[in-house]
Amino acid sequence: MAVSSEDFRAALTRFASGVTVVTSADSEGRPHGITVSAFCSVSLEPPLVLICIEKLAGSHASLAESGRFTVNLLSSGQQWISERFASLEPDKFRDVPTATGVSGLPLIAGSLALLECEIRQAVDAGDHSVFIGEVMAASADGGDPLVYFLGDYRSLA
What we know:
Elements: H1 5-12, E1 17-18, E2 20-25, E3 31-36, E4 39-43, E5 48-54, H2 58-66, E6 68-73, H3 79-86, E7 98-100, E8 106-108, E9 113-125, E10 128-140, E11 147-149, E12 152-154
Antiparallel strand pairs: 1-11, 2-3, 2-6, 4-5, 5-10, 6-9, 7-8, 9-10, 11-12
């Protein structure tokens, strides 16, 4: 018996997760970004992470085209950035402080950690693609994470 999408979604909201924004660029160099909660480490040797991106999302094509992405692990004060990149706003990078990483992709200033990745594998997974990326550069800062639980942002305090 298959689980209903409502029951599946309700169960998944009970999993607290950090919040990331994944950035990429299309073939013309235009930056793209999307809020992603489906992110995790895969391997230490080599250093691999995975992200899951809905196939209909605007950033999906730029990830597939460019072959690289950056994971920006958001800090507790960056809820507005998460909301911006989860929206349909056409200029998601407006007023978002960024720098350019060694990959040439945007890095979001103030993030807890930054992972610059090259795609090693893309796996078809229903209405999403799983992109497995090898981490080519990484940096970490202090602070508290932005957490998402039961459909809302939370803090650890």
